[in-house]
């Protein structure tokens, strides 16, 4: 079972551990803050102020990773770079425990994030993500979840992002909320 717990002060040491080594550091954390004070500033102050919603991923009751999502238009430069649209949301994530990578858990996390987090917003029409073109494992995971590659871009930091988009499933609002249709 996958759940998303709003990121709070108690998650700072866990985030610091995850971003200090392994796959999370390699694919997500190279440019991330390293001290608890820097992490606190970025994930508890800056990101929420910018509209980013941050969560710890729990899998079978254990914290295993991190996700964040936001309206693409909240970051106009990036939105323009990826040709974002007004009803696009973006998703960033990582599995923080290397022992859980390669077992299909990432696919379950992404599917749950789309259903429970991104597309739970009534105005969300598409979800955009931008893994590194070299992160083949993540790209395969995203493809299994319905994402399709639309373009590769170079960010202001000179890094390439392999832009992928998933369309909102054709469900009524009542179905998305688990309510029977009238």
Provide a descriptive summary of the structure in words.
Helix content is 34%, strand content 27%. By secondary structure, it is of the alpha+beta class. The chain has one domain: 3-Layer(aba) Sandwich (Aminopeptidase). β2 and β3 (62-71) form a beta hairpin. The longest helix is centred in the N-terminal third of the chain and has 14 residues, at 36-49. It is globular. The two termini are 29 Å apart.
List descriptors:
single chain, 182 residues, alpha+beta, seven-stranded mixed sheet
Task: Give the low-pLDDT segments.
Answer: none
Number of strands: 7
CATH classification, class level: Alpha Beta
Global structural class: alpha+beta
What is the fold named in CATH at topology level?
Aminopeptidase
Strand order of the largest sheet: 1-2-3-4-5-7-6
- Give Rg in angstroms: 16 Å
First and last CA, distance:
29 Å
CATH superfamily: Gcn5-related N-acetyltransferase (GNAT)
Q: The biggest beta sheet, please?
A: 7 strands, mixed
Rounded mean pLDDT is 89
The percentage of residues in β strands lies in 25-35%
- What's the order of the H and E elements? EHHHEEHEHEHEEH
Compute the number of helices. Answer: 7
**Integer count of domains:** 1
Helical residue percent? 25-40%
- The coarse silhouette is globular
Gross CATH architecture:
3-Layer(aba) Sandwich
